[in-house]
Design a protein that fits this description.
By secondary structure, this protein is of the alpha/beta class. The chain is 34% helix and 18% strand. The protein is globular, with a radius of gyration of 26 Å. The chain is built from 33 helices and 33 strands.
């Protein structure tokens, strides 16, 4: 069936704005009334198809989009071509190291290394390396930035080389803010232009980011989602992202948030509800009349947590709230007017009464949401704030005798993460609570490490204008810098009181944070408990100092007048917050503060190489040419019998597989670095070493909370080498298997690879020789990263689990995964050979969605594919994109 009459090279309408004529894809004109049935995310994918595809390919893809309406699902593949890529320093470093190594491989094969350069704009935010070394002092931000520049000098010098050697790569230096806040406030245009055959087109600002929280930009109507660095590399070099037409889950919002409820509370409720529904790999779209009551800031908080509820997106369409946000952050009036005119004409404007077709939908009444927290180990474990003592008491921890601290003291109280520091209302609310606490004379106990790390420097301006910067500092929440800090595992050392008490078994300390993840060891390797909440509640728990303190019933302390002070005495009213936000914000701050922060003298002083190829230093502990960036790398598919390298349980996160937090000074990774000249007391974090494959392969599965059923009770990052029976470091076991010509696999439970987008979680497994991962289920980005490294993800049959397989020492797995038999979702025969000689057979489902992913597996992964494409270049389609700059 044809869904349009004739699509020539000019499929659509024209707009004339401010004296400029524009062409655009006129979706209502092309598709009529049926367009209104489509979710907005599918309309944006449809626009992308119409603009980029040609001939029969376009006919098939458009037909598949509308066929989707019949069932809400589809097996059809479509190509998505983003307009830009966003990265941060610890995902961009390995990607750019790959590019530098690929340039070497191209030169060694007789090609031109400069031919390998991105064809899309790439923005890199240096935000993931700031640690909270200094806190609770007005000099904290400056001192922490100095520590960051000193520790990461070599890596930052490399990033500066990349920005000069690779056209289109722009680096935003330390201090300019968190990537997702930067995207909201500075980079996103929501609608942009591109030049096609000499004509200027208006097109949606669609993008991909190498961080799982990229969907935060969905809050202002930009379609974007997180991918691994490997998938980003394919996009950078002109290959579209291939995806099945997604299932789309509609979340209908009704009512209005109660005065005491905040965006954080809504985001946590959405996370719980959607995890129960299982939206892994699906698109989520918010609709209904309640959407209109949410500000763009509210929406961004909810959209940010898409990976926590398992979805690819958490999308809010463009409406008046979007326009208001763009004006409030200093976007030019003509750009805002252009956006409105385009979205209305192109069928991309939000209608609160619309009821599109969805795969499935749920309803959430905003007025029923109260003050919430999530924890102590997963973001979807939701509780009313008053239930925290009961939750912790249920852990039944008994401290050693003679403890001076509470049983569950607050070790860290961190207002951290883009999630809850990008919306001025949330930070201002925390500031007003701090003001009220100061008036009563309340301060946190000495053992609490407090910090405030906003998403951008504009926060300092609006807090100062509202008179709240000093109030927050008075209760310990001085600004410690503008970066991810505690949220990404860079909280710096714990206070002496907490460190000593934990070591003595006298307490089980808790992290209190306004972030998005609380997996064990995520925030700090010595903390396995954490609660997520709004910034204002972080201040309140920081003042209490005891995570078992019932904030709803017990006083936070006694005021300077001797009277009990309760949380209700400190909590500001909505009217107070509204007034303070109005007083605090100035649209001019956002661009001015960003420009000021961009003039980082220490960054500019770095002497970066000026050459097409990067000059590697053989003695470097930060940057090494990786062995997988080679034209000789081949496919790992085949028919083989493998030993299990590890047998794991449920909820193995990317923090378990490839940690980002501090490198323990007593670890074998530390020994490796110290032997190469590093100081044991200044090793930085694992994330800072992602440019050195020798460090990162040793860091694989380095997490003390990871349980390996093949070697219960083994030391961190150890496993059993089955042929010898010895329990040895994982990297050593992998090398023994490799030397003996033996294959290895990993067996795991549900939600394997949940969490961050880090591609090193897959790269580390490839370097360990892992050919396949058999798990009950996979999180979306990690599944993609495994394929990007040539590792086959296999889902166990329904009802089977890692536990039920009961794999023991000596058992092996025969996998029949030859290249020729692999199709999307193919059933792969697996035989479990017991050590006794008995055999058990089952069919595992290849978690491969598209022919493009099969091609990657057959090539050995993304990097060999890029190398072959560069050495045998494809024709350029001749489309140029306007930079969003």
């Amino acid at each position: 069936m044809k869904y349009f009459n004739s699509l020539s090279s000019h499929p659509g309408g024209r707009l004339s704005l401010h004296g400029q004529d524009y062409a655009f894809v006129d979706l209502p004109g092309l598709f009529g009334a049926r367009l209104r049935e489509l979710p907005m995310v599918l309309r944006l994918l449809l626009e992308n198809i119409v603009r980029h595809a040609r001939g029969e390919e376009r006919e098939r893809a458009v037909a598949a989009i509308f066929d989707w309406l019949g069932s809400g699902t589809s097996q059809a593949e479509i190509a998505f071509q983003p307009g830009r890529v966003l990265m941060h320093d610890t995902t961009s470093t390995p990607a750019l190291v790959d590019i530098a190594a690929m340039r070497d491989a191209i030169a060694e094969a007789g090609g031109n290394p400069a031919a390998l350069t991105p064809c899309l704009p790439v923005d890199v935010s240096v935000d993931h390396s700031l640690a909270v070394e200094v806190f609770a002092t007005s000099s904290a931000a400056e001192e922490n930035l100095q520590h960051e520049m000193r520790r990461n000098r070599e890596r930052y010098r490399f990033l500066r080389w990349a920005s000069s050697a690779l056209e289109g790569v722009r680096i935003h230096p330390p201090g300019t803010g968190i990537m997702h806040t930067l995207n909201l406030e500075q980079l996103a245009t929501v609608v942009t232009t591109e030049t096609r055959e000499g004509e200027t087109w208006l097109v949606p600002d669609v993008m991909l980011g190498t961080d799982s929280h990229t969907p935060m930009i969905n809050g202002i109507g930009v379609l974007g989602w997180g991918v691994g660095g490997l998938e980003a590399e394919t996009v950078m070099f002109g290959m579209p992202t291939m995806l099945r037409i997604p299932e789309v889950i509609g979340v209908r919002l009704v009512g209005k948030l109660a005065p005491e409820a905040q965006a954080t509370d809504l985001a946590l409720v959405v996370t719980k509800r959607l995890r129960e529904l299982d939206v892994t790999g699906k698109f989520v779209e918010f609709f209904g009349p309640g959407v209109s009551s949410l500000t763009a800031g509210d929406r961004a908080v909810v959209a940010n947590m898409a990976p926590e509820y398992g979805a690819t997106t958490g999308f809010f369409a463009v409406d008046d709230q979007t326009l208001r946000y763009l004006r409030d952050t200093g976007r030019p009036p003509e750009a805002v007017a252009r956006l409105e005119a385009y979205c209305r004409a192109a069928g991309l404007w939000f209608d609160p009464q619309a009821k599109p077709t969805y795969t499935a939908s749920i309803e959430i009444d905003l007025s029923a949401i109260g003050v919430q927290v999530a924890g102590p180990t997963r973001p979807q474990d939701l509780h009313d704030v008053g239930d925290v003592p009961r939750v912790l008491d249920g852990l039944a921890f008994t401290p050693a005798q003679g403890a001076d601290l509470p049983r569950h003291p607050v070790a860290i109280a961190a207002i951290t993460s883009c999630t809850n520091t990008s919306d001025p209302r949330l930070i201002v609310t925390a500031g007003l609570l701090a003001r009220n606490a100061r008036r009563h004379g309340l301060t946190p106990p000495a053992w609490v490490k407090t910090s405030l790390a906003p998403g951008s420097p504009a926060a300092a301006s609006y807090l100062k204008r509202a008179g709240l910067l000093e109030e927050l500092a008075a209760v310990g929440f001085d600004i410690v810098g503008y970066g991810c800090t505690t949220c990404i595992g860079n909280p710096g050392p714990l206070t002496r009181e907490i460190a000593e008490a934990q070591a003595a078994g006298a307490c089980r300390a808790v992290a209190i944070l306004s972030g998005n993840r609380n997996f064990p060891g995520r925030v700090h390797p010595e903390l396995d408990l954490g609660f997520i909440m709004s910034p204002a509640l972080v201040v309140a728990f920081g003042l209490a100092g005891d995570a078992e303190h019932d904030l709803t019933r017990r006083p936070l302390g006694q005021g300077s007048d001797g009277n009990d002070v309760y949380l209700r005495d400190l909590w500001p009213s909505r009217e107070e917050v509204d007034a303070a936000v109005a007083e605090a914000t100035d649209a001019a701050d956002f661009a001015a503060d960003f420009r000021r922060a961009s003039r980082n003298a220490a960054w500019e002083a770095l002497d970066a190489p000026q050459s097409a190829r990067f000059p590697w230093d053989a003695d470097s502990t930060a940057l090494r040419r990786p062995p997988f960036a080679s034209v000789t790398e081949g496919s790992q598919l085949g028919h083989y019998t493998a030993y299990p390298l590890l047998v794991l349980g449920d909820d193995v996160t990317t923090d378990h597989i490839s940690p980002a937090s501090a490198i323990p000074p007593d670890s074998r990774v530390a020994d490796f670095l110290v032997a190469r000249g590093e100081r044991r007391d200044d090793l930085n974090v694992f994330a800072s070493r992602r440019g050195n494959w020798e460090v990162m392969v040793r860091a694989a599965f380095h997490n003390k909370s990871l349980s390996n059923r093949l070697a219960p009770g083994a030391p961190v990052a150890h496993t059993r080498h089955v042929p010898s029976g010895e329990v040895i470091p994982i990297v050593d076991a992998a090398e023994r298997y490799r030397a003996a010509g033996e294959s290895v696999v990993v067996v795991a439970g549900e939600r394997y690879g949940m969490g961050s987008s880090r591609d090193w979680a897959a790269k580390g497994q490839r370097l360990l020789g892992i050919r396949a991962v058999l798990a009950v289920s996979f999180e979306r980005i990690h599944r993609s990263n495994l394929i990007g490294m040539g590792i086959l993800p296999l889902a166990l049959p329904e009802g089977m689990s890692a536990a039920s397989l009961a794999i023991g020492v000596g058992d092996r797995l025969e996998i029949a995964a030859e290249a020729g038999r692999l199709v999307p979702r193919a059933e792969i025969p697996v035989t479990l050979w017991r050590a006794s000689g008995e055999a058990e057979q089952f069919l595992a489902a290849a978690q491969v969605d598209t022919q493009a992913e099969i091609a990657l597996l057959e090539a050995g992964g993304v990097i060999p594919s890029i190398l072959r494409q560069t050495l045998n270049p494809l024709a350029d389609e001749g489309v140029s994109h306007e930079s969003n700059r």
